[in-house]
From TrEMBL, chain A:
Provenance organism: Marivirga salinarum
Protein known as: MoxR family ATPase
Superkingdom of this protein's organism: Bacteria
InterPro entries: ATPase_dyneun-rel_AAA, CbbQ/NirQ/NorQ/GpvN, P-loop_NTPase
Record GO terms (molecular function): ATP binding; ATP hydrolysis activity
PANTHER family per UniProt: MAGNESIUM-CHELATASE SUBUNIT CHLD, MOXR FAMILY PROTEIN
From TrEMBL, chain B:
Region of interest: Disordered: 130-152
Native species: Marivirga salinarum
Tree of life domain: Bacteria
Compositionally biased region (Acidic residues): 137-149
Protein's UniProt name: VWA containing CoxE family protein
Length: 301, 441
């Protein structure tokens, strides 16, 4: 029986109640949870912390532009198979010539096809009941990839190539599947239809405070407050690439090395703001703002 | 039961069908649905597939389950206050609470009750205990604040339906919903002291419930006021606000493929080195193709407001994908040439344009509104020749679609080149039609 109790976050991970509920619902229904939201809102962190907290096995499949369903489920390594069978011939030839040295196939036996099936994260997760499977950044995949997944996700059954081995999982034992996307491309409707959908809101200032507390528990309160003011001020400017949770955490990490009073000064002076701003155009815009509006930064003290 | 639900949600532009009902049913069987707020939650997970669906979804939900219609531009608070459902609920509630309550507090309590989910419920207490405590005869106590250490929510009544079978629950929901709609429901409401919370009237509930934590009421409030949830009217003409939505839909024109291929030369080379043992070498290939010609009508006042936005859209596209993108200009319609600069001083002939590879996708943007004599035989020839050469060719028109039938030249051009409205939704349709043509050959 898969783990379906309601998980509300751990010591290190602050889980938004709405997200926790959607996650619970997805697990109860045995459906994948599709999380979308701005980068740096902790989409990927959810399954990682969940698996860690509950002591479950986690399989991760980071999606890239070359992802295909074979990597995800399983593929047959024809190259190794051919190599090993060639090696057998070679070894036989060498023996004939009376040579001792042999090439090894590394415990693989060309007679056993199973040895050449390379299992991807999906096959591994499906063969372990009660595991967690993370498909990270599915929007980076080629367009046909999500559609190829449809079958894999809804039928709870994989047939291994060539060897014909069947990996099947019951509805109760379905791994908890979490899929994340940064919305760089629209996912097919049919794919979304098979998932429970959740959009992560950008955390408000209070929530962000709590998140920071989880990551930098020793941080001076005043430093955090001033930094957050700057941070949310920047977000409101409507920059091309608004700073996210990840950036503020990095910025504060840098500030945590400095004495609190110094740090407050530095933050108000927008020092190391490069950690928050990612494009040249945004940087210019912010510089202009500071020049035009003296109160920016000044009113934060 | 609840069979009209998919249709209702579809009328709000959401995707719902019989599978939605099946999933809802499954969720009920798994015990995910105990309160009205749970229905909201579960349906949200099933139906909402995009942040911009959130607003319409909340709207549809309020109209369907609570009979609170939210008119365009109306806030949720306002809609609630004007609804009969709220008025009825308020009467019961105010009577019971026995103190002065501001409207705002009332709406908040109402929202909290509507969105109470079983996750909020901290503890189920015996119905009798609550019943005794909240007995109308004991008027001197405010039963909510008494003994619990959960300060925020003042809700301790919601029916526990664990005794009911699924069928009964569904039936009950449908019945209550109908009654809510026909406005003579008697004592039976979804929310408040009757209906779904039988406790309080007749004491039908076996168990009372104690709650804590944060409710979904906050969420709903936010959804209605937040432009992030009601962000873009996908059918409004392209402007700076919805340009990103348009960009997202236009991205579908990129052809991308990744394949693993047997690298024959490399296999032979390394095979020969091994003395005739040929071990296959693989290489991966990634192709990204984007070939686009954009033709923009930048003459005349009618197009002026859109030219900049359209340019902006394709500029964004170019910076993101940096592939072959060529922009040309024309005035009203295309004769024997198109211009390479905005001021229309340098021209290339239509033959030159047509000499591009036929894989190019062509977007023509213009309002196609002009004097009928402007479309002469030369122009018609040119307009015909473009889709003949480039199979993937569309015309995007900023003019609202309802005016199209009244403009002769639009009707004419529409027959020559497939025309779509210049809105995010229209662009999406245009791209989809291009892609489907691609597969046909």
């Amino acid at each position: 029986m898969a783990e379906t109790s309601h998980w509300t976050g751990s010591e290190k991970y602050l889980c938004d109640p709405a997200l926790a509920q959607a996650f619970h619902m997805a697990r109860t229904l045995g459906m994948p949870l599709l999380i979308e939201g701005e980068p740096g809102t902790g989409k990927t962190e959810l399954p990682i912390h969940y698996a860690k907290d509950r002591g479950l096995d986690l399989e991760v499949y980071p999606v890239g532009s070359k992802s295909n369903v074979e990597q995800f489920v399983a593929r047959f390594d024809h190259v190794k198979y051919l190599r090993d069978s060639q090696i057998e011939i070679l070894n036989a030839q060498r023996e004939e010539k009376g040579l001792d040295s042999k090439l090894t196939t590394g415990d693989r036996d060309p007679d056993s096809l199973n040895d050449y099936v390379v299992k991807g994260p999906a096959a591994v997760a499906y063969s372990k009941p009660n595991s967690v499977l993370l498909i990270d950044e599915i929007d980076k995949a080629p367009r046909e990839f999500p559609n190829d997944l449809l079958y894999a996700l809804s039928h709870r059954k994989f047939i291994m190539p060539e060897s014909g081995e069947v990996i099947e999982v019951s509805e109760e034992d379905m791994p908890a599947i979490v899929i994340t996307s940064n919305r760089e491309q629209e996912l097919p409707t049919a794919f979304k239809g098979r998932c429970i959908y959740h959009y992560i809101d950008f955390p408000d200032q209070d929530t962000m405070n709590k998140i920071i507390d989880k990551h930098h528990p020793k941080m001076d309160e005043k430093v955090v407050r001033v930094a957050l003011d700057v941070f949310y001020h920047l977000r409101r400017l409507g920059l091309e690439r608004a700073p996210t949770t990840r950036e503020i955490l990095n910025w504060l990490k840098y500030m945590s090395e400095i004495a609190p009073n110094e740090a407050v000064k530095k933050i108000a002076g927008l020092e190391g703001i490069g950690a928050l701003i990612k494009t040249q155009a945004d940087m210019e815009r912010v510089s202009r703002m500071i020049g035009a509006d003296e109160s920016f930064g000044a009113n934060l003290n | 039961m609840l069979s009209s639900l998919p249709e209702h949600f579809r009328s709000h532009g959401l995707k719902a069908d019989v599978r939605t009902l099946l999933l809802l049913r499954k969720a009920m069987q798994k015990g995910l649905v105990k309160t009205l707020g749970d229905i909201y939650n579960v349906l949200k997970g099933i139906i909402v597939k995009d942040p911009s669906d959130m607003g319409p979804f909340t709207k549809a939900y309020y109209a369907y389950f609570l009979h609170i219609p939210i008119k365009p531009g109306q806030t949720l608070e306002d809609a609630i206050k004007r609804s009969e459902t709220f008025q009825k609920w308020k009467m019961d509630y105010v009577e019971e609470a026995d103190r002065d309550i501001t409207d705002e507090e009332l709406v908040n309590t109402f929202l909290d009750e509507v969105h109470l989910t079983s996750y909020d419920i901290k503890e189920v207490v015996s119905g009798k205990e609550i019943w005794d405590k909240d007995n109308p005869d004991q008027e001197d106590t405010d039963p909510m604040n008494e003994d619990d250490d959960i300060p925020s929510r003042k809700l301790d009544k919601m029916a526990d339906y664990s005794e009911l079978s699924l069928e009964e629950l569904l039936e009950r929901m449908e019945k209550v919903r109908e009654q809510q709609k026909t406005r003579h429901g008697g004592g039976s409401h979804w929310i408040g002291t009757g209906g779904i919370s039988p406790y309080g009237h007749g004491g039908a509930a076996k168990n009372g419930i104690r709650v804590g934590g944060q409710g979904g009421g906050k969420m709903a409030r936010k959804v209605m006021g937040d432009k992030n949830y009601f962000p873009i009217d996908r059918d409004s003409t392209l402007n700076d606000n919805n340009i990103d939505a348009a960009l997202a839909s236009i991205k579908g024109v990129i052809e991308e493929s990744a394949t693993e291929k047997l690298d024959v030369p490399e296999t032979i080379k390394s095979g020969l080195k091994r003395g005739g043992l040929f071990i296959p070498e693989m290489s991966s290939e990634k192709n990204e193709e984007l070939k686009i010609i954009v033709l923009i009508d930048n003459g005349g006042y009618s197009m002026a407001p859109y030219v900049r936005t359209v340019q902006n859209l394709f500029r964004k596209m170019r910076t993101r994908f940096a592939h072959d993108l060529e922009v040309y200009y024309f005035h009203n319609t295309i004769y024997d040439r198109v211009y390479t600069d905005e001021r229309r001083t340098k021209a290339i002939s239509i033959e030159k344009l047509l000499s591009h590879n036929k894989d190019y996708r062509v977007f023509i943007m213009g309002d196609a509104a002009m004097a009928p004599y402007e479309i002469n035989s030369l122009s018609i020839e040119s307009l015909k020749s473009i889709p003949q050469k480039f199979k993937k060719c569309v015309w995007l028109n900023p003019e609202p679609i309802k005016y199209w039938p009244h403009t002769y030249t639009i009707q004419l051009i529409k027959q020559l080149i497939p025309m779509f409205p210049l809105t995010p939704a229209g662009i999406e349709r245009a791209v989809r039609s291009m892609n489907s043509k691609g597969t046909e050959g």
